[in-house]
Structure formats: structure tokens, C-alpha cells
Amino acid sequence: MLRIGMLTSGGDCQALNAAMRGVVKGLAANVKDLEVYGFFNGYKGLIYGNYRLLTSDDFSGILTKGGTILGSSREPFKHMRDPGENGIDKVEAMKSNYYKLNLDCIVILGGNGTQKTADLLRAMEQDSGIDLKSLKVDGGASANDFLMQFQADVINADTVRPGCIETTALGAAYLAGLAVGYWKDRAEIRANWKPDKTFVPGMDAGRREDLRKGWRRAVKCALAWAEE
């Protein structure tokens, strides 16, 4: 039995329904026993246990629907350690729900910005104790060399762009190919991945920290403005 969780998070991002459908159909064609749990309204669903077991009917006819059938929300990682509703520890709550469902993995779909990615990766490093060595990127924005160099500079890690940056469409094609036997297994697909360019951080450490401080200050100002 393979049990996966799935959620969509962040702002507007194209093809979320198609991506979810592609993941589930590809897995269903290659895994005998599969359970897919959908978490509603982004990370809030994982935090507060708002989920249900999804069926094939949930993914029928969703390709022409906008948005995401699971809903979304903005749950900034900088506030993940802040107490949630009724004083709940959000990080521990996510872990608890993950283990309660005995999930093998969780699929998270959505977009992200350069500085938000940096915040997320730093949080992951702090929680895991693992130093980030490189970041693989994709999507339309990754075609911009200036942006990718800036990404590498602010996270202080190599940023690797693949030969094909349209990962959502490519992933759907791979899953379809797996379903009909065009590709033998996932190992064969992984072998197809080739890097196009690696962006190496070259920013002065002091400059990097100044930019990060400026970003955090801007976020605080925006939150204060929103509360008014």
C-alpha cells in the first residue's frame, strides 16, 4: 500500500488541477494499492487536520476548472513557529497528521518567489540539520539568468537549471508514458534529466545579509500595513 498526501499552496499557479490529476493517474497506473489524501486550503489543512481520502471521481473533469480543487492559503514559513488557533504548535501538528495517516510522502504543488524560497530553505536546514548544497529550479522564471543568479546569491548555494524548464508539462508526459509503458520505470526517467546551467553564488556575505534584512523588514512593514 502506498499512501500519499497532496496539497496546493501559495498564490495563483497555472495547471494545479492538471498536475494533481497527472500525479494520481500516473501513480494509479503503476501502483497496485494506492491511497491519496487531499489536504484542503494549503498548509492549513495539514496543520488542522482538514483532509479526506480522495477517489477517482475527484479528479474526473477537473482539467477545465480554474484554481485548485483542494483550495489554497498563504501560510508564511516565517510564522510556522508562531502558535496557531487555540495555541496549537503548527509544525508539530503537521508532523502529527502526517504520521497519523502513515503517509509515505506528501506532494506539494504551487509557486514561490525568490526570497520566500530562501526563507523556506533556511527553515528546512534548521529543522533537518542538513546544509543545502544545491537547488534545482524549473518553470518559466528560471529562464531569466539574472533571477537565477540572484537566487543562487541569496540562498548561498548552487542553483541548477535543467535543459527542459517546463516541468509541469514534462511531468505529465512522463506519467502518461509510464502508464502506457513507453518508459520502463522511474529510474529511466531520472536518467533523462540533464542540467543546462549552474549558477554559482558570488555575492559578498555582508551584502547577502543586508538584502535578507531588507526583505524581512519589508515583510514586517507589509504585515503591519495589512493589519491596519
Verbal overview:
This protein has 228 residues and is of the alpha/beta class. The chain is 44% helix and 16% strand. Helix 1 (16-30) packs parallel to helix 6 (167-180) and helix 4 packs parallel to helix 5. The mean pLDDT is 81.
Tally the structural domains: 2
**What percentage of amino acids are in beta strands?**
15-25%
The CATH superfamily of the largest domain turns out to be: ATPase, nucleotide binding domain
Describe the largest sheet. Answer: 4 strands, mixed
General shape? globular
CATH architectural label of the largest domain: 2-Layer Sandwich
CATH class of the largest domain: Alpha Beta
Q: Mean pLDDT across all residues, rounded?
A: 81
Q: How many individual β-strands? A: 7
Indicate the percent of residues in helices.
40-55%
Low-confidence region ranges: none
Strand order of the largest sheet: 3-2-1-4
**Gyration radius, to the nearest Å?**
19 Å
Number of helices: 8
